[in-house]
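As a warm-up, study this chain.
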Amino acid sequence: MIDMMHTRVGWHVEMEFREDDQHTQAVAMVRLPDGTEVRARGHASRHRTDVNQPRVGEEIAGARALNELAMQLLTKAHEEIDQASGRTSHPIHV
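Now compare it with the structure written out below.
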């Protein structure tokens, strides 16, 4: 039986919101182990006839910020693969 060592790595994502009665803005940030910080924004708007539910606006704006953060991380990884290999790799899809 081979004993394999596993390395655990953790990322902490920070999320901040700014809100008024009809708009919610979210900013997501992750600091990678190499010290790189990746930031993304998301936005949600409440239709004037909808009930004011700040939590829902936060969920939508937060999800959009996290989606953008994910796309930036995929792009970063793709560029690093290309740099390391010296060739253009296939796009990374979600």
